[in-house]
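User: Show me an example of a complex going from sequences to structure tokens.

Assistant: Sure. Here are the input components:
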Amino acid sequence: MSQPRPGNGSGPPGPAAEPDFPDLPEATVARLPEYLRALHHLAEAQHDTVSSEGLAAAAGVNSAKLRKDLSHLGSYGTRGVGYDVALLIEQIEYVLGLTQRRAVALVGVGNLGHALAGYAGFASRGFRIVALFDADHARVGELINGLTVRHIDDIADVAAQEAIAIGVIATPAAAAQSVADQLVRAGVTSILNFAPCVLAVPEGVDVRKVDLAIELQILSFHEHRKSALTALPGAGLTALPGGLGPGAQEAVGT
Amino acid sequence: MSQPRPGNGSGPPGPAAEPDFPDLPEATVARLPEYLRALHHLAEAQHDTVSSEGLAAAAGVNSAKLRKDLSHLGSYGTRGVGYDVALLIEQIEYVLGLTQRRAVALVGVGNLGHALAGYAGFASRGFRIVALFDADHARVGELINGLTVRHIDDIADVAAQEAIAIGVIATPAAAAQSVADQLVRAGVTSILNFAPCVLAVPEGVDVRKVDLAIELQILSFHEHRKSALTALPGAGLTALPGGLGPGAQEAVGT
DNA sequence: CGCGATTTGTGCACGCCTTCACAAGCGCCT
DNA sequence: AGGCGCTTGTGAAGGCGTGCACAAATCGCG
């Protein structure tokens, strides 16, 4: 767990000493995974280098932003040429801590939990789900994707065997806080919460929340706004104003 | 302040002219759904008023931020008392355009799509899934939650009958762009994309993306950083520095 | 009727993030 | 070897969002 990296041989880090990355802008961290995905895509297409322009387009961001983001990791590009795809992949994966496949525990094997347990994207992008839990005894024992569902109260035992750093909560809102408490008690320090509620956790534990209905509600706001606009003003919706050639993704916040 | 609504009748909008909300800060819009959820929770608990402090705690945000957010909607609080829960719910629902239950089409009835189709949270929070689509003919005809899966090519016919404003893409990445194109062609102007790829859409179409693996990768970064910190510095992790009483949710970006 | 307690609404300052614009650096071609 | 074009890396400016701190407003009580 400790030993961030020895300064030696193979890995991306490079032989010399490294300050690691104590202070990457949070906004940058949130974009790195997107760059990483785009890079893997490029690698499969046999590209060995990319310009910031090209990578930015593939990731759906501004090229200046991308360069600034990458500059925070150090200089891994070559002026006049671009970035080495393989090198950049290694570097970003290292920064994100993906060189070790992190163990993830999933709690709540209902509708959504089932889907998450079977989601191939986790395995292919640096994670392995090592345990499934549920509070419902009727579900305990069920076999999903090669894993047996265990009762949530067993989580301490499982955590003792395997270092679980990340927990995913896919339970109803009413159960989420108590599940979070159990996860924290078992040593989990990062939680991805799909339940529509706010979690209280001790300092040092990170929580990210994904609320599917909220995403729709944000879209609904923009729909509401759009329909109000087309109803009122003179111009109405004449053939799309600027160019309509597929511009890069229209953001709508983040 | 501008007084967006005349003080008359029952519903929040009121029959008279309205400037609507052409310019709400995007960050505020993203938080309104969270306030709304907290408010519904309070309403169920028979509270008719809340202070900004109380609502902020329930929504996991700063009270000053909450007041500023709400002030953008107009003055719906009473100094010395707080906010009227029912009134605020109506107001936020109106702003978000939830007074009409928006019709949503879901494309991709695989692992995740199945779960989304059965997710009760959509129905209970202002949306109704009116159609399911898939490209796989083997899946067409399947009955899920009272809806029959249709082929993606039929989307134009369905859109003709029912005004579909929002489309949800839960297909593999390879199919997502082509599905998006079909949705746009059918008149959809808002897309929620679960596929791990960037979508190109014409101007005027809004896209929000949810990438489950990216969320985990962001957590992984913080794990990586935490383990590096505990390994190096003198103090190590002595009993949590500040207070460890469950503070409000630790954000980790948004 | 007046006063104090309480809570909203907001002006202001600070910091983060984005974007532009350009100098520095690298490879290639002649 | 020299010059030219291309691309990175970054300084600086502008905008947005956050949080503080306080004035204004309302209620309840004596």
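The lines above are the inputs; the final block is the predicted structure for all four components together. Residues 51-53, 67-68, 70-71, 75, 77-83 of chain A lie near DNA strand D (CB under 10 Å from a C1').
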